[in-house]
Specification:
Layout: H1 3-28, H2 36-48, H3 52-71, H4 73-92, H5 106-124, H6 132-142, H7 148-167, H8 169-190, E1 196-202, H9 206-216, E2 222-227, E3 234-243, H10 247-257, E4 262-267
Antiparallel strand pairs: 1-3, 1-4, 2-3
Helix pairs in contact: 1-4, 1-5, 2-3, 2-7, 3-4, 3-6, 5-8, 6-7, 7-8, 9-10
Length: about 290
């Protein structure tokens, strides 16, 4: 297996490990909650001392079945490894405990930073941790005019609000700090301030590359007529806009067709259109 194929699994594993460290060393040790399926599993752990990782898997089973029906097989396969990896790692590192911090704000701050780095690494290569991500995407199929981020926030906020009955209102409020910090770190890792890339591809095999991009990324490709300044040979230059997390896969697609292809990527200040500012029906099974 080449490094390009192995890289996503390495990033997801490292990201899952960091996320599990944040859960056990900062959230569980200080009895903080979380959003999504992890949050529900933590509440069960606080009430009945159940293993967090095992219940993440059990709670995700009906979620994955629903996601398979609505979103299709492709999306679920990419989500499964991330969910299983983080579930196993959370239970493996369950004994890694530290005493509760005296300064209560440090737990959500440092826990949020480490969790955000972990999630950012997972999302960077197109993976997910399952749970709330899948539920949010299922809901988006029914309500296309509502952003995915709003569904994710609504799911997390609901679970955190319920957790106040178990971990106290103060701990629930600290959890909101952790979730916010993690989300900002994820954004920073993914793109800083920009989430899209405009990519120019110069290759002797433009048709083959275009076909592979259409098939595997379901992104539109514009062919621009060009002429080499030195060779004076005419040809086609490809222009495609992708999300930042798709760059790794785009590079792999291009290199598999033409190892000598020239790729130039730069930040897209603003992208409006299908698949960016509003969902693309053709890409519903591909979105990470």
């Amino acid at each position: 297996m080449t490094w390009q194929r192995l890289r996503p699994f390495v990033f997801i594993t490292i990201g899952g490990f960091l996320y599990s460290i944040a859960v056990n060393l900062f959230f569980v040790s200080n009895k903080l909650a979380q959003g999504g399926v992890t949050g529900i599993s933590l509440l069960l752990h606080y009430m009945f001392n159940t293993p967090v990782g095992l219940f993440i898997i059990l709670l995700n089973i009906p979620v994955f079945i629903l996601g398979y029906i609505i979103l299709g097989k492709g999306f679920l396969l990419r989500s499964a490894y991330g969910m299983i990896a983080v579930s196993v790692l959370i239970d493996v590192t369950a004994s890694w405990k530290v005493p509760p911090l005296e300064n209560v704000i440090l737990a959500p701050l440092y826990g949020g930073i480490i969790a955000g780095i972990g999630m950012g690494l997972v999302f960077r290569v197109g993976g997910t941790l399952g749970g709330g991500d899948i539920i949010a995407r299922v809901l988006q199929q029914k309500f296309h005019n509502i952003d995915l981020g709003k569904f994710l926030f609504g799911i997390d906020f609901t679970i955190i609000a319920i957790s106040a009955l178990v971990v106290t209102v103060e701990k629930a409020m600290l959890t909101i700090v952790a979730v916010y910090v993690a989300s900002r770190v994820v954004d920073l890792i993914l793109s800083g301030s920009q989430k899209q890339r405009s990519v120019i591809i110069i290759s002797s095999k433009p048709d083959e590359i275009t076909a592979q991009i259409h098939q595997h990324l379901v992104r539109g490709v514009t062919m621009l007529h060009s002429m080499g300044g030195y060779s004076r040979r005419e040809g086609e230059v490809l222009l495609v806009v992708v999300q930042l997390y798709e760059m790794d896969r785009l590079r792999r697609i291009v290199s598999e067709v033409d190892e000598r292809a020239f790729i130039l990527a730069f930040e897209a200040k603003e992208v409006q259109g299908e698949g960016f500012s509003f969902p693309s029906p053709a890409r519903q099974h591909l979105e990470p």
